Amino acid sequence: MLRNLLVGLIGLFLVTSLLKNYNEYQKNTQFYTTLNNDLEKEKNRNNNLRMQKIKESDRLELEKTIRNKLNLVRENEIAIIVPTPTLEPTIIRPTSAPVYKQWLHIFLKN
Fold first, then answer.
1. H or E element, residue 79
2. 79: buried, middle or exposed (CB in 10 Å: 19+, 13-18, 0-12)?
3. Which residues, 6+ apart, have CB-to-CB distance to 97 below 8 Å?
4. Residues 6+ apart with CB under 8 A from 74
5. Banded pLDDT at 68 (limits 50, 70, 90)
6. Are 74 and 67 in contact (CB under 8 A)?
7. Helix or strand or coil: residue 61?
8. What's residue 16's pLDDT?
9. Nearest-CA neighbor of 26 among 91, 34, 81, 7?
10. Is residue 67 packed enough to be buried (19+ CB in 10 Å), middle (13-18) or exposed (0-12)?
């Protein structure tokens, strides 16, 4: 009986230790994945900021940005303004003939 009690206590200790270690493993895994995701986001943000800095430091790129914002063109340059596309198709309806042609058509038909 004492032996069964001792085996039971050791088994209970091992099961609780296993559960505790499993919970700790789950927490650590979740922490690692969130930390890794944050690291990737920051790497992307860093790359974007570096690219933006390079673009802004380039004189030609800066001039291009200013000209685009102010809608200016260089000498011997042509600006083409393209309208934004509409999502709805336009229905083309035939236009009626002028009124005098309609009257002529009525009188000359008879």
1. none
2. exposed
3. 105
4. 67
5. confident
6. yes
7. helix
8. 94
9. 34
10. middle
Total-model pTM: 0.43
Nearest residue to 22 via CA among 30, 88, 74, 102: 30
**CA separation for the pair 30, 43 (Å, rounded):** 20
Count CB neighbours of 64 within 10 A.
13
What is the pLDDT, as a whole number, of residue 14?
Answer: 93
Two tokens at 106? 């009525």
- Tell me the CA distances in angstroms from 16 to 20, 29, 69, 76, one per residue in order: 6, 20, 66, 81
Tokens describing residue 1: 């009986």
**What is the model's pLDDT at position 11?**
93
Which residue bears the tokens 């860093």? 46
Handedness of CA 7, 13, 16, 21 (dihedral sign): negative
